[in-house]
Amino acid sequence: MAEGPEFRTTMDFAYGVARELAPGVVRLVANNPGPFTFKGTNTYIVGTDDLVLIDPGPSDEAHLRAILATIGSRRLRYVLITHTHRDHIDALPALIAATGAKTAGFGRRAAAPGARRRSASGSEFIDQDFVPDVRLEHGARVAGDGWALTAIHTPGHAPDHLCFVLEGTGVLFSGDHVMGWNTSVIAPPEGSMADYMRSLELLGQRADRDCVYLPGHGGRVGEPQRLVKAFLLHRRMREQAVLDCIRSGTNTVKAIVPVIYRDLDPKLTNAASLSVLAHVEHLISRGLVHCDSALSVDRALFVV
Ligand SMILES: [Zn+2]
Fold first, then answer.
1. Are residue 254 and residue 116 in the same domain, yes or no?
2. From ligand 1's centre to the CA of 299, what distance in Å?
């Protein structure tokens, strides 16, 4: 199998220490490392006196203290949410209580799939109840003194996922949609491979020269267009590998996983199964694969 995307598995940071990544953009890393969160969740604070924060992170005393110390006596106008997974949003109530900031995000829509279900990580739950003060649709703009952010709806990892472009800077906050340390987890029913591919294509079409992505986990991503293209190619190749398996008679998700993911960390078996399931769903939705009964990991699949 050809090489996948090049990942950066080092990160220069210290917990509790605000680090400036671009003029007027600082990052704090929460101390919740893990196989799905890398070193922890990134919280970004943008602005000089009038601030906006992106993703408060998990509920963690030390992280909240570091956020409030970084804000100091300045005004926090908005808290933006990339998506409502708990590692990004759980600190929100305490942060709002301490600052009085308004919340903004896509919000869980009533029919959102995956509601109240555990996601692949087993610890990354969904906050189904989040209702933002300001609902952000695709293309919505949030602005303050010296900064303006535009929301890009990028479903796939989560149906409510937004990326944010910081106008006039070349900075794009990419949440868990595009990260430099690993691929995004696409775990049905919360995740959708069809949406994820469309959202990657959406970013791929942007003229983001001299752009940098600041993701929800891991360090900054330089030359992001290369990575977006590599992710698209990686998923297309994986889809082809899934099709080849089914065609050759390795035709259940359970059987396909060890063929595609060699040397898999047992902790990630569930996530890998869900990822293959996401590919199968996407193939079925396009009429390329057929399943006689409701899709699950041990149902027989057939190439149409
Ligand atoms: Zn996350």
1. no
2. 30
